[in-house]
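Supplementary notes (optional reading)

For those who missed the lab, this is the record we used. Protein: M20/M25/M40 family metallo-hydrolase. Length: 428 residues.
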Amino acid sequence: MKKVLVFSMLSFTAFSGFSQSIDKIINAKEVAAIENVLASDSLRGRATFTDDIEKASNFIENKFQKIGLQPFPGAKNFRQEFFMNQSTNTVANITIDGAVIPDSLVGIISFQPKVDLTEKDNVKIIKLSAGDNIRQKIGAILKSKENLLVLVDPSFERYRSILRHLGKESMTPETNTIVFLFGVDNVKTFNIHLENTIVKKPLNNVVGILPGKTLPDEYVIFSAHYDHLGVGQPVNGDSIYNGANDDASGVTAVLSLAKYFKKANNNARTIIFATFTAEEIGEFGSQYFSKQFDPAKVVAMFNIEMIGTESKWGKNSAYITGYDKTDMGKILERNLTGSAFKFYPDPYTEQHLFYRSDNASLAKLGVPAHTISTSKMDNEPNYHKVSDEISTLDMDNMAEIIKAIALSSTTIVDGKDTPTRVDTSKLN
């Protein structure tokens, strides 16, 4: 494999000589070996609450064990377990202006065993209109504490399967009910009768650590989410959302970085390697993780999300979300001086990516927590599709990105650089 990272000898004195062997640890062959497991059809898309994500967890745990990581302090193993409430709608009788609405045109978020609502009750009717920023609008809808009837414009038809399954899980019982309706333009009268089965179910992040040699109470986090969308409606005969890029590629990076830093065995600060569950349904895994320690002890978080395809700038490049919120990006760029690799600020700021991945849970607490990605979010052809398969990834370029993350983070891991904190008063 052609080496595209060339560093001056002064760049990484703490790893003197070791960085020269990085190609033996992080390379396309090793990257592909991990991807071929996590994104295989046998794991059926790693959906939350399935046996398939359990298999993925076991694979990551075994990797952590083989690498030689330690469990999170106080944990008996690499699993960081928590519980969520899962709601399954068993009865949905909905009439709009006297017409019965078929189940296929309804999406329900409700954690009450029984719901009966009419136009005489406290229900707010809102619209997802053509041209709306659906992500922003859905974000506001999910934060609402009111009962909502949401009329979805036909232009959002491709989101139907996602909206119909959105919000089936929560870490805390919700008191409001949200009903999405497809193909309904206007509502005068309505009658909503729902019956739901609420079950408390276990989930787990997979977390391992390398204790720091001289600064053990200061943490650097490398993370990614290992869940994806599972199995859905067939598209051209394929029903498995493999999630090779989203986010098996990020988990592959975390496992590769764990192996690299373990072999280096020279980290001043404690390194936490975390793979999160339940990102796709609301970032619940990272939310739980963020509450397990004092965020003031975390000096940096490298969240890695979708690095399997080339960025808009081509090979040997990636972007950092929330670049202007801390000086962490500048530190990484400085550490890559003289190399062929380039980090860029997030070019998709209108999509608010800084708040849409697992880094957000820590950033909201002031941690310099950023996501590193290459995904072309204005035109990523396989995003959240059954076509997000191993064959679409560039393993050589992935390996170079992971190496760049490893080498650019060295001065932070060594305790030489400490990024500025996120100003939480300016988060929006």
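If you only remember one thing from this example: Residues 1-18 have pLDDT under 50 and may be disordered.
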